[in-house]
Design goal:
With 376 residues, the chain is α+β, with helices and mostly antiparallel strands. It has 13 helices and 11 strands. Helix 5 packs parallel to helix 6. The radius of gyration is 20 Å and the shape is globular.
């Protein structure tokens, strides 16, 4: 399919009952509420039996295996590796990304909270294309289930619509009913985002140099990665999703509500920062945490020094680490730790950005000679 065809489809009017169904009014699902009486049930994931602490690999997710797969794919497609894929079109670029929500959906099924995972779905893709400096244009979702529950599907799709509103992009989608394929009451969702950026404004990290500053934008919580480990820790804790989150600064918020908080969509905030200049690279902190995502934007020979303690680590991460006895290095590779987007900027731009922004923002590190991420 040509780029012109992609854009035509994204802008075309709905042509099917399924597409027309998606014109339901948007809601504001930022505040989650856990239905009373919902108790945690057993989930199908393994957990580490090591006494010295739980790990992501012990919970069933092998980050190293994923990295090896990417390495092998690069032999066939050397251009991959960024957060979004660039497609040249009429002298500029379309930027593409696709993703899902992962095992966070398991908690949606248990809590009955379905109006926020749609925001997560949009966020995972639009935040990725944002790292190239692209403005999202359109988003396409795929909702699949064994038997359509209209009320449940409407909640999910309303969330997707709300995410598109936050990202300022249009929505098209597909609904699939596949009898016997999913357990009763369960579904899967995936999404695809396309954005555009002028060729001379692409952010690719090539101009990053030693001494540049790392600025972190706060996350809203766990976002949409690491949930296989989260669920293992929750099982070990013996607590219910309706129990209060321990150590939550006196807030009466349940574990379920905290974990289902949707991913921040950084589009409008970051595009405004980019428009004022000085941004050389961006890293979306998802699977792989700080350790694997930040180096993706650096030229060869450069690494990062992260000043631990320079930002607020959210109570949910402190609880996960304490219950799971998770090593610091594992936490920094599995979770966002309270920072959802990292900007690499010049020293001059760093001072201006921090001074001008009204929202919380943190100077979390600097670019150094070397390789990888070093925590101090």
């Amino acid at each position: 399919m040509t780029a012109h065809s992609i854009l035509h489809l994204l802008r075309a009017p709905a042509a099917s009952p399924a597409a027309a169904h998606r014109r339901v009014p948007s809601i504001q699902p930022q505040r989650v509420s856990l239905p009373q009486g919902k108790r945690r049930v057993a989930v199908a994931c393994s957990s580490s039996t090591e006494e010295d602490g739980m790990t992501y690999k012990g919970a069933g997710v092998d980050i190293d295996a994923g990295a090896e797969l990417v390495r092998r794919i690069r032999k066939m497609a050397p251009w991959i590796g960024g957060f979004g894929g660039l497609l040249e079109y009429k002298g500029d670029y379309l930027v593409l990304s696709t993703d899902g929500v992962g095992t966070k959906l398991k908690l949606a099924f248990e809590t009955g909270i379905h109006d926020t995972v749609g925001i997560d779905l949009v966020a995972m893709s639009v935040n990725d294309i944002l790292t190239s400096g692209a403005k999202p244009m359109g988003f396409a979702d795929y909702f699949a289930t064994s038997k359509i529950d209209v009320d449940l599907a409407e909640k999910v799709i309303k969330g997707i619509m709300h995410g598109c509103e936050q990202a300022d992009c249009t929505l098209r989608g597909e609904t699939a009913e596949m009898p016997g394929f999913y357990a009763d009451g369960e579904y899967d969702i995936s999404g695809f985002a396309v954005g555009t950026v002028e060729k001379d404004k692409v952010i690719d990290g090539k101009n990053i140099v030693e001494g540049d500053i790392l600025i972190g934008l706060p996350s809203s919580g766990v976002h949409s990665n690491g949930f296989s480990l989260v669920r293992s820790v929750l099982d070990k804790s013996g607590l219910s999703l309706t129990d209060q989150l321990p150590g939550n600064d006196g807030k009466t918020t349940t574990i379920g509500e905290v974990l289902m908080t949707p991913t921040v969509i950084y589009v409008k905030q970051v595009l405004e920062i980019i428009s004022k200049g000085g941004v050389k690279g961006l890293a979306h902190i998802t699977g792989g945490g700080f350790t694997d995502n930040i180096p993706r934007v650096f030229p060869k020979g450069l690494g990062a020094k992260i000043f631990t303690g320079s930002w607020e680590v959210l109570p949910v991460f402190k609880w996960l680490q304490q219950v799971g006895k998770i090593e610091d290095s594992e936490m920094m590779r599995a979770f966002n730790m309270g920072i959802g987007m990292v900007l690499v900027v010049s020293k001059e731009a760093a001072d201006r950005i921090i001074e001008e922004l009204n929202s919380p923002i943190y100077r979390i590190g600097e670019v150094i000679q070397g390789k990888g991420v070093h925590y101090v």
